[in-house]
């Protein structure tokens, strides 16, 4: 039976790695075969097929609930209810609309919208909205987060931008009560940490700034500011321990059995906390785990602790197979499994502080391969930060915050006092975390091959096993490839070109054997900096920690917005720009001028065709030549500048052209395309950009010239080797069933 349950879980988990879903006819055949095998008691194979069939069916249902192609990019009037707590960030509000209807046709059951300069939107209200609808979409690079997977896992079938709206009904849901509580929390004098209190009480992290999240990431304490299994388990544990203590002291009524009531009360409190927090995916996962652990403690304690954990994993996956698309799912169950592995088979006892200290560093080491596999940063200071922060938050901040929230209902003044104390404690913690973060920021490891990750996971499990486990020293040998993963550098005379997928902007990496150049650094919009969240992680995942040169074509935010974050994230040798006065002075920008230099047999040439111009026309140009093959990067030049380039008599012939100004109508004249005569062109732009790039007439000119266009919005990040005359590989070529290709 145990083998059947494990096979069922494996079948559910296989979904995460499928490139495409089986067709409906094949799923029916798999279901029938599974039933036949289970009837003949071939449990492992039958259970595996049952899990696979159910997971694929659930995934197909979620895919079918996505926005239809005919509505993609169109603005429709829709009507629906605001679900969950709206997120307010600077000048925009983001919220979910559930069960939306439109006279134009059927819509997904859940739509995520953003509304700039919105009026006050409250949870539970019904609105009539004019929304520009979009299919679920996100940038795709060769490493990093996957927005489309996240949207599918949360059953969000469309996104959109609100153009206008009208409230048609007031608040009518549990979320409305949560929203009112959030407004009361924002009125508390919490030393500026009201957003943190809202995150801990209601699971609403929108009140935390980008800087706060960066600090939490650098110190490995992000899990403390989201309602996770840790907080819910702690609260349930307090209730269980309290009842057990009363029973031991003889203060519990003798006619009432304490153990069943302790289990029931603990689970009830956990579920209540989960409802208060919105019962999101991590909360549901934690409540299932607690319920099974309580059942194990009540009736099945003779079984080992792995039993309730395995059942919880199976139940969570069976309830929602798409949860395997979320990194938090893997990390939470891996953390539980790691703790059991670390402490389950040890003899003797450790002091509480020794136990706590060892748990922190062992968890940090044990989860490192999984973090690397998920493309997530690893906090160097995480063990030290968690050693202090976990008991501080769990034993002081959370009890005071929850107690204050409950007291607001009966004794408002006392509740305000408790919340103020919780806010002060949280503020003090952030000060300490800031000191710890200054020791070392989060480390973005180099992307390791699959074989190195598997060896590393096995090696660290062996290394962290209890004393007496055979061949523990072998763990160091197996884990070594994680510390020194192989780097694949271009050969002399050629260069690796990577056009990053950063939305509406540009960032191109040129790497030779010993040198690295970055042309433009991506956009910065509001508090989201592409340089910090996309460009730097992408470079570090490639093993790049230093740029010999960064060229910022001009000063517009979509090209130079991420430059400061890039310079803060790694060493930059030299910065050139067509508009140095618009670049942050701390970067030491220099004017772009005629330069030629050779790196590892690859020739680089820069010049500025219109040094007296401003804005797009001032773009600094870069021509790269490797083994007779050429790449031409043009920034945002317009047709007037193109004519000036042609008139200069320079040899601008190139095999590859990065399309000027993201394909706008004002660039890429027929004469310029003919002068460059590229075999192919590279287009960097956001799929749903508000400028309408690329313009159809521009694409028509490239088509008329016989130039093939590779588009990051459709292909994801592009990479190829200049000097080998090969074709670009798009990140979206790595197929997953949830991703459009």
TrEMBL record:
<dbReference type="InterPro" id="IPR035681">
    <property type="entry name" value="ComA-like_MBL"/>
</dbReference>
<feature type="transmembrane region" description="Helical">
    <location>
        <begin position="417"/>
        <end position="436"/>
    </location>
</feature>
<dbReference type="Pfam" id="PF13567">
    <property type="entry name" value="DUF4131"/>
</dbReference>
<keyword id="KW-1003">Cell membrane</keyword>
<feature type="transmembrane region" description="Helical">
    <location>
        <begin position="329"/>
        <end position="349"/>
    </location>
</feature>
<keyword id="KW-0812">Transmembrane</keyword>
<keyword id="KW-1133">Transmembrane helix</keyword>
<dbReference type="InterPro" id="IPR001279">
    <property type="entry name" value="Metallo-B-lactamas"/>
</dbReference>
<dbReference type="InterPro" id="IPR052159">
    <property type="entry name" value="Competence_DNA_uptake"/>
</dbReference>
<dbReference type="InterPro" id="IPR004797">
    <property type="entry name" value="Competence_ComEC/Rec2"/>
</dbReference>
<dbReference type="Pfam" id="PF00753">
    <property type="entry name" value="Lactamase_B"/>
</dbReference>
<dbReference type="InterPro" id="IPR036866">
    <property type="entry name" value="RibonucZ/Hydroxyglut_hydro"/>
</dbReference>
<feature type="transmembrane region" description="Helical">
    <location>
        <begin position="305"/>
        <end position="323"/>
    </location>
</feature>
<dbReference type="Pfam" id="PF03772">
    <property type="entry name" value="Competence"/>
</dbReference>
<protein>
    <submittedName>
        <fullName>Competence protein ComEC</fullName>
    </submittedName>
</protein>
<dbReference type="GO" id="GO:0005886">
    <property type="term" value="C:plasma membrane"/>
</dbReference>
<dbReference type="InterPro" id="IPR004477">
    <property type="entry name" value="ComEC_N"/>
</dbReference>
<dbReference type="GO" id="GO:0030420">
    <property type="term" value="P:establishment of competence for transformation"/>
</dbReference>
<feature type="domain" description="Metallo-beta-lactamase">
    <location>
        <begin position="504"/>
        <end position="687"/>
    </location>
</feature>
<feature type="transmembrane region" description="Helical">
    <location>
        <begin position="258"/>
        <end position="276"/>
    </location>
</feature>
<feature type="transmembrane region" description="Helical">
    <location>
        <begin position="361"/>
        <end position="380"/>
    </location>
</feature>
<feature type="transmembrane region" description="Helical">
    <location>
        <begin position="392"/>
        <end position="410"/>
    </location>
</feature>
<feature type="transmembrane region" description="Helical">
    <location>
        <begin position="224"/>
        <end position="246"/>
    </location>
</feature>
<dbReference type="InterPro" id="IPR025405">
    <property type="entry name" value="DUF4131"/>
</dbReference>
<keyword id="KW-0472">Membrane</keyword>
<feature type="transmembrane region" description="Helical">
    <location>
        <begin position="448"/>
        <end position="465"/>
    </location>
</feature>
């Amino acid at each position: 039976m145990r083998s059947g349950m494990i096979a069922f879980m494996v079948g559910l988990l296989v979904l995460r790695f499928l490139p495409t879903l089986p067709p409906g006819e094949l799923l029916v055949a798999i279901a029938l075969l599974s039933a036949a095998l289970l009837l003949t008691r071939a449990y492992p194979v039958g259970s595996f097929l049952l899990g696979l069939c159910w997971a694929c069916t659930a995934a197909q249902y979620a895919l079918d609930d996505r926005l239809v192609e005919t509505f993609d990019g169109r603005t429709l009037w829709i009507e629906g209810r605001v679900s969950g707590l709206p997120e307010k960030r600077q000048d925009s509000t983001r919220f979910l609309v559930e069960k939306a209807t439109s006279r134009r046709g059927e819509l997904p059951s859940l739509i995520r919208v953003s509304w700039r300069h919105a009026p006050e939107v409250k949870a539970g209200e019904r609105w009539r909205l004019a929304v520009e609808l979009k299919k679920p979409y996100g940038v795709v690079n060769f490493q990093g987060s996957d927005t489309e997977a996240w949207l599918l896992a949360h059953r969000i079938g469309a996104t959109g931008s609100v153009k206008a709206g009208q409230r048609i009904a007031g608040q009518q849901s549990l979320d409305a009560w949560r929203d009112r509580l959030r407004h009361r929390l924002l009125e508390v004098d919490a030393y500026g940490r009201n957003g943190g209190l809202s995150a801990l009480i209601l699971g609403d992290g929108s009140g935390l700034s980008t800087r706060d999240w960066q600090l939490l990431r650098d110190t490995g304490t992000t899990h403390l500011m989201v309602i996770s299994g840790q907080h819910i388990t702690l609260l349930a544990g307090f209730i269980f321990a309290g009842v057990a203590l009363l029973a031991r002291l003889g203060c519990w009524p003798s006619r009432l059995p304490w153990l069943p009531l302790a289990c029931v009360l603990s689970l009830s409190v956990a579920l209540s906390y989960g409802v208060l927090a919105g019962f999101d995916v991590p909360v549901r996962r934690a409540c299932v785990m607690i319920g099974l652990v309580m059942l194990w403690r009540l009736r099945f304690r003779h079984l080992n602790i792995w039993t309730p954990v395995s059942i919880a994993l199976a139940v969570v996956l069976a309830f929602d197979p798409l949860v395997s698309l979320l990194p938090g799912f893997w990390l939470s169950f891996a953390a539980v499994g790691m703790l059991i592995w670390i402490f389950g088979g040890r003899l003797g006892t450790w002091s509480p502080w020794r136990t706590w200290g060892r748990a922190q560093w062992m968890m940090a080491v044990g989860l490192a391969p999984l973090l690397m596999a998920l493309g997530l940063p690893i906090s160097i200071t995480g063990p030290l930060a968690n050693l202090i922060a976990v008991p501080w938050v769990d034993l002081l901040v959370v009890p005071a915050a929850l107690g204050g929230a409950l007291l607001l209902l009966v004794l408002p003044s006392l509740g305000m006092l408790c919340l103020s104390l919780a806010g002060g404690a949280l503020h003090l913690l952030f000060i300490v975390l800031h000191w710890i973060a200054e020791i070392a920021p989060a480390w973005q490891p180099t992307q390791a091959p699959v074989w190195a990750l598997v060896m590393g996971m096995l090696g660290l499990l062996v290394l962290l096993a209890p004393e007496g486990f055979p061949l523990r020293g072998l763990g160091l040998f197996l884990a070594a490839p994680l510390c020194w993963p192989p780097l694949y550098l271009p050969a002399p005379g050629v260069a690796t070109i990577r056009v990053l997928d950063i939305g509406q902007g540009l960032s191109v990496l040129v790497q030779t054997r010993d040198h690295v150049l970055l042309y433009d650094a991506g956009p910065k919009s509001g508090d989201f900096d592409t340089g910090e969240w996309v460009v730097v992680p992408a470079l570090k995942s490639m093993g790049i920690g230093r740029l010999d040169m960064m060229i910022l074509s001009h000063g517009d935010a979509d090209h130079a917005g991420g430059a400061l974050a890039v310079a803060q994230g790694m060493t930059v040798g030299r910065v050139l720009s067509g508009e140095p006065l618009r670049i942050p002075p701390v970067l030491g920008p220099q004017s772009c001028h005629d330069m030629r230099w050779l790196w590892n047999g690859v020739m680089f040439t820069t010049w500025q065709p219109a040094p007296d111009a401003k804005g797009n026309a001032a773009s600094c140009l870069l021509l790269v030549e490797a083994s007779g093959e050429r790449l031409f990067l043009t920034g945002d030049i317009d047709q007037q500048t193109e004519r000036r380039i042609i008139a200069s008599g320079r040899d601008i012939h190139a095999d590859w052209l990065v399309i000027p100004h993201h394909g706008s109508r004002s660039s890429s004249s027929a004469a310029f395309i003919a002068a460059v005569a590229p075999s192919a062109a590279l287009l960097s732009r956001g799929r749903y950009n508000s400028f309408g790039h690329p313009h159809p007439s521009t694409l028509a000119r490239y088509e008329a010239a016989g130039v093939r266009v590779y588009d990051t919005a459709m292909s994801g990040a592009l990479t190829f080797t200049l000097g080998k005359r090969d074709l670009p590989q798009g990140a979206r070529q790595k197929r997953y069933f949830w991703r459009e290709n």
